[in-house]
Amino acid sequence: MSVPLVFDGKVVIVTGAGGGLGREYALAFGVRGASVVVNDLGGDIKGGGKSSNAADKVVEEIKAKGGKAVANYDSVEDGEKLIQTALDAFGRIGAPFINTFACISDLIHRVHLRGSFMVTRAAWNHMKKQKFGRIIMTSSAAGIYGNFGQANYSAAKLGLLGLANTLAIEGQKYNIHCNTIAPTAGSRLTETVMPPVLCESLKAEYVAPLVLWLSHDQCQENGGLFEVGAGWIGKLRWERSQGRIVRKKNQGMFPETVRDQWDNICDFTNATKPANINESVATLVEVLSRVETDEGIAPNPTSAMATAASGISPAVGQKLPESTFSYSQTQCILYALGVGMSTKDDDHLKFLYEGHEDFSCLPTFGVIPSQAAMMDGGLGSVPGLNFDFTRVKLLHGEQYLELFQPLPTSGTLTSQARIADVLDKGSGAVILLDVHTYSGKELLCYNQYSLFIVGAGGFGGKRTSDKAMSTVAHPNRSPDAVMTDTTTRDQAALYRLSGDWNPLHIDPSFAAMGGFKSPILHGLCSFGFAARHVLKQYANNDASRFKSIKVRFVKPVLPGQSLQTEMWKEGNRIHIQCKVKESGAVVLSGAYVDLHAAADGSPQILPEAGGLKSELVFAEIGRRIKDLGAEMVKKVNAVFGWEITKGGNTAAQWTIDLKTGAGALHKGPYSGKTDVTITVSDDDFMEVVQGKLNPQKAFFAGKLKVRGNIMLSQKLEVILKDYAKL
């Protein structure tokens, strides 16, 4: 078990601590070493009366368990008195401070909202002086969602959230963190309306652990909102649709336009998640800019953006101007430093020192020559993409890179880019840009950029494409390996020297315009960190083992934060997820790295003792494809992926390609996108092909798992029929 959280030397003020949640918090803090001020008026459930009994009883419980506690019977409106009690008894306050209120009366706003403000104000300066404070406000589901007959209570509880959010901002620089919880727990208030069995399952003790964690000095959460109850905890956040601009420069705005665009206004496809007021205001700044230049977002055929959108379809297949990229060993080393390599690690030297006997170029350097196709304004020259790329908001959504041979440490490379597809996501358009990079006539690498253009959707195009390199969810188990690196404050400044000069990553004022409190790290820098983590963990830093990588960019990283890569090994595919260690925020998702077999002849898939019986079947399938492949392609027209397991682990992967050419059988995962992927154990596979196990029964029993177009699996009969007779 991990090291327990303790609160030795900390002082806690718990309001409403005579019963219910407050009592549970007070007892939990007392047991873990905190000095507790137990505040409770001792009133009834309607807020009437006053008694010291409730607070005194909890104090005695804490002391009986070896803890330190003192009672306070003042109203929360007398915040100074609560704070003075803490100072008189224990000499300090502020770590943490808990707000929970158990009374509902006609004075709801005075007790819940104003009382919270008064107690916080009384504690605030003391917290600032000691450079530490933890405040937890207690809101409720009624405040977040509303509830019939609780207008006054709901208003007060949502007001607490607004108060907490502002305190989180103002207290950040003083190490004062403020979070809000919306608990569901049995109490004096709920026991009269909830069945006893339900009250029992909603014990207050199932809420207290969250409060203790948010109150601990190890916890860096700030400005969060959490629902909690029955042993479950979930974090809430705001979500906002991409919206629509419904006016033009020097023209009026009319309700009929709002009505006509209502579905688009309320479409949460690719919704944004503003986390602060800067991110919120940034959208309006962008809107004003577009209105000023008549670039309305609404899918109106007379607007500049809609005209561009209606011309997107002809862009598919169009080629961008060819670009060249010349580099030396210096650029290779600079890139390695940019993605966090350091001479502190001896095994990094081969990527940092040109005199090293195994001097190599990091595989993910392969994105650098390809990005010149975009950086040089190539997209703006494509017929059908009629908008100004210097004005639209362009987001890097996903990235795929595949190497066909190790990258040379110097040379002149040529990149050829084309628009693979354009998708309509409603709130924006996605451009799939394929870039093939050559050294002379030899293909070195292939990149696919997924670029999201905010506001360019709504033109009636398709939403998905079979040309897109897909992301893949990681296995549902704990990671097999985790690696963490801390980025430096200058990480973005260093990485941009490899060619991405976007001021978003260096200029604070430019970052603020984009809604960020400071310049952010390049997504492809995080991409490089994650890839080299895999290379070190599973390939001993052998660049020749690297085959491909696919990631989805989720959230930005601030220079100075730590990148934590979680890895799951399944055969020769390493699924990865990258997080910011300090916040737990996922920054790369649906990601994987495919590796080649080791040079010593190690198989691409983990070997299994005794071999696999299915090997014989696939050998026969290969023979049939060789003889009748063209005919099979006409009948089937699909790519099948097979994952054969043994002992619960992936033991072999096969690809049956009956879609291209005369068909083919490959051992290993498919480099593109399969139409259907089937996972089955070696034994069950043999039972199915020999007719001993009905495939449908196997599917519903969970023995045979299918991803993709399940109907295509019926065409496997063309391949597998009569196997039992062989």
TrEMBL record:
Domain called Peroxisomal multifunctional enzyme type 2-like N-terminal: residue spans: 325-455
InterPro entries listed in its UniProt record: HotDog_dom_sf (IPR029069), MaoC-like_dom (IPR002539), MFE-2_N (IPR054357), NAD(P)-bd_dom_sf (IPR036291), Peroxisomal_Beta-Oxidation (IPR051687), Sc_DH/Rdtase_CS (IPR020904), SCP2_sterol-bd_dom (IPR003033), SCP2_sterol-bd_dom_sf (IPR036527)
Protein's GO biological process: fatty acid beta-oxidation
The UniProt record lists the keyword Cell membrane: no
MF (Gene Ontology): 3-hydroxyacyl-CoA dehydratase activity; isomerase activity; oxidoreductase activity
Pfam families, sorted: adh_short, MaoC_dehydratas, MFE-2_hydrat-2_N, SCP2
Top-rank taxon, per record: Eukaryota
TM segment ranges: none
Domain MaoC-like: 473-586
Pathway noted in the entry: Lipid metabolism; fatty acid beta-oxidation
Gene3D superfamilies: 1.10.287.4290, Hotdog Thioesterase, NAD(P)-binding Rossmann-like Domain, SCP2 sterol-binding domain
Record domain SCP2: where: 620-721
A single GO cellular-component term on record: peroxisome
Keyword NAD: yes
Main localization of the protein described in the UniProt heading: other
Subcellular location: Peroxisome
Keywords: Fatty acid metabolism, Isomerase, Lipid metabolism, Lyase, NAD, Oxidoreductase, Peroxisome
Assigned protein family: Belongs to the short-chain dehydrogenases/reductases (SDR) family.
UniProt cross-references to PANTHER family, sorted A to Z: DEHYDROGENASES, SHORT CHAIN, SCP2 DOMAIN-CONTAINING PROTEIN
This protein's name: Peroxisomal multifunctional enzyme type 2
